[in-house]
Amino acid sequence: GENVEQHPSTLSVQEGDSAVIKCTYSDSASNYFPWYKQELGKGPQLIIDIRSNVGEKKDQRIAVTLNKTAKHFSLHITETQPEDSAVYFCAAVKGFQKLVFGTGTRLLVSP
Amino acid sequence: DSGVTQTPKHLITATGQRVTLRCSPRSGDLSVYWYQQSLDQGLQFLIQYYNGEERAKGNILERFSAQQFPDLHSELNLSSLELGDSALYFCASSPQTALNTEAFFGQGTRLTVV
To answer: Fewer Cβ atoms within 10 Å of its own Cβ: the N or the C terminal residue of chain A?
Structure first.
């Protein structure tokens, strides 16, 4: 089955810096790649996603890139703010199957 | 607000007991997923339902069971509870159409087994 690896497990940046989180997946048939942000005590919140027919997608300060050949995708956050501090999860989905999550990245943005 | 409602938010119970967690999906979503998240751990897939039918099963213990009802709400039943079952349990829902496979999570039920 699908396996998703996520790096780094923790990431500390200064406010205003950029942050990059990387994920790799194993099943080349996966075609949907969402990213979730989870704040303490809350459920995961969908922040951006990308489908396999697109190489890049942006939404204000966040962007996701997908390299299907290498089977990896990345989340880019620019101009980070303290409120970006949270745990971020990537996931891969094949067709109508379950979301397979990465292990999460704890992002800490220091003022 | 994701539109997915989970009740109760918190549950404290003793070992050996049985509990039921409830999930109401977003309006129109046919698919429901259940995930378990232990302390500082990732999201472990338990089970998925689509329009009342079980679609996929993960590493769900035999002591756990779930169902999706005709009104599309879902319940996760946990029995013979052990201390290690203490975790956050999340429900997510998705339309699961060819054009829309986005999944949205509820706020979770925090289960504490004492």
So the answer is: C
Asked if A35 and A86 touch (Cβ cutoff 8 Å), the reply is no
Cβ burial, residue B4 (10 Å; 0-12/13-18/19+)? buried
| Shortest CA distance from B4: residue in chain A | A43
Is residue A99 less than 8 Å (CB to CB) from chain B?
A: yes
| C-alpha dihedral (B48, B52, B53, B55), degrees to nearest 10 | -20
Return the SS3 of B21.
strand
Contact assessment for residue B23 and residue B35, using Cβ atoms and an 8 Å cutoff:
no
Do A6 and A103 touch, CB atoms closer than 8 A? yes
- Distances in Å between the Cα of B26 and the Cα atoms of A5, A26, A70, B80 are 29, 30, 35, 30
| CB < 8 Å to B58, chain A | 98
Q: What are the tens digits of pLDDT across the range B49-97?
A: 999 999 999 989 999 999 999 999 999 999 999 999 999 999 999 987 6
Cα–Cα–Cα angle for B13, A45, A39, nearest 5°? 65
Burial class of B36 by CB neighbour count within 10 A (0 to 12, 13 to 18, 19+): buried
What residues are paired with B110 via a beta bridge?
B10, B88
Report the gap between the CA of B58 and the closest CA in chain A (Å).
9
Question: For A26-44, how does the pLDDT look when each residue is reduced to its tens digit (9 = 90+)?
Answer: 999 999 999 999 998 899 9
